C-alpha cells in the first residue's frame, strides 16, 4: 500500500516476468492481466489530475513497462500453453499502427498455424514493410505460395541502397523454388550462392542444401552436406533430425547413438535430439520406445515434421494404422512438398488394404509434385499391389529409371517386378548396374536372392555378407545367409559320403559347427533388436 499506482504497475509486470521465466505461464498471465488493469486505472487518474502534475510524472511514465510489451508477453504465455486463439485475441486487440515488427511476426505465425492464410500474408508483408531484411518473413510469404517476384519487389529498394547485398535476390529465388517443390532448380541456385565468397561455408545454406538433397532422394549427398555443416558448427541442432534418420536408414546405429548423445548435451529442449534417439530405437525394432520419443519431440515442437513421421511409422509398425494415418496427414499439412510424408500415408493405406485410397493419393502426388523419378516410383508402388495395373507399374518404373538410373527405390521395385515374372537374369543385370556406382544393403541383399534363384550360391553368400557388413541389423540378409549355409552343407555332406563314409560323417560335424555359428548370428541379431 506504500507504493504509488505506477510503482504497483511496475511491480506486477516484474512479478509476471519472473513467473514467465520460471515457466509458470498461467500465473504469469494472471499477473499480466492485473498489471494491465492497474495501468488502465493509472491512465484514468492521470487524466483527472491537474496539468501541473503532468510535467513531473512524465519521466516516470516514460520508464514504465510498455502496455504493448505486456500484451506481447501475455501472447507468449498463451502460445506456451498451446492456447493460440487467446494469443491471437490479445495481439488483435493492439491497434495496427501500434504493432511492432515482432508483434506482426508472431501474429503472422499464429495465423498461419490456424490456417488463416490471408491474414498471415498481410502480417508478414507488414513485417517486411518495417524490416525489409527480415528473412523469416520472406520465408513465411514463400511458404504461403506468394510468388518469389512479388516478395523480391518488397526488398528491391534496400538491396539497391546497401552494398554487397546482391545475393539476397538470388537467395529469395532459391527458396521460392524450395517452396514450390522444384528441388533440382533449388539445389542449383543454392549451389551458385554457396560459390560466392560472401556465403561460402554458410551453415544455414549447407543445411538447406542437405535437406534438398534428402527431398530429392539423393541421400549420399545429403549426408555429406550435413557432415560439412556439422564440422563448421559443432553446436548445430537444426536439421540434425533428418541427418540422424538418414544414418539410421543406412544401418549406422552407433553413429546415430553418438549423434543423439551429442545433441542432448547441447540442448534437450529441442525436438531434434529426441527424434534422433527415436530413430535409433525404431531401427533397433523397439517401436514402443520410438513412439514415446516421437511423442516427446512433438510435445517440444508440434511443427516437427520428422517427429510426426517417426511417431506415425512407430504406430504403423505396432499395428495402430488409423492413429498413424492422422500423424502422416498432419506431416503433409506442414510439409506439402515432402514426398516422404506421402509415402508414409500410402504405406498405411496399403497396410490396411485401402488400395483405392492409396491410388488416389499417389495420383494426387504425381500431379502436384510433377513427374519425377520419386513420384513415378511412388505411383508404381501402388500399381504393383493390383494385378490389373502391373503393366502400368512396369512402364512407370522404366520412366523413373530413365530419369535416374541410380534411384534405389525405383531399382528395388523394378527388381520386385522382375522377380514376380521370374526374369532373374534381367534382375541381376539391373542390380549389378545400380551397384556399379553405389553400395546399398538392400540392393546387395536382393542381388543375393536373385543369384540363389539361378543357383549361383557362392556369389549369393558374398552378396549377403556385403549387405550385413553395411547393416549388421538387416534381418533378411541374415536369414538368407543362414538358409544358404543350411542348404549348402547337407549337399556337400552327401557328395563326401559317396566317396568315404568317414569323411561324410566329418562333413556332418562341419554342419553342426555351421548351425552353431548361425545360432550365434541369430543371438547377435536378437541382441541388436533388444538394445
From TrEMBL:
SUPFAM superfamilies: TPR-like. Keywords: TPR repeat. Residues 494-515 have a biased composition (Acidic residues). PROSITE patterns: TPR (PS50005). Residues 479-489 have a biased composition (Basic and acidic residues). GO terms for biological process: cell division; positive regulation of mitotic metaphase/anaphase transition; protein ubiquitination. Pfam families: TPR_16, TPR_8. Residues 479-531 are annotated as: Disordered. TPR repeats lie at residues 305-338, 441-474. It comes from Pomatostomus ruficeps. One of its GO terms (cellular component) is anaphase-promoting complex. Gene3D superfamilies: Tetratricopeptide repeat domain. PANTHER family: ANAPHASE-PROMOTING COMPLEX SUBUNIT 7, CELL DIVISION CYCLE 16,23,27. It comes from the Eukaryota. This is APC7 protein. InterPro entries: TPR-like_helical_dom_sf, TPR_rpt.
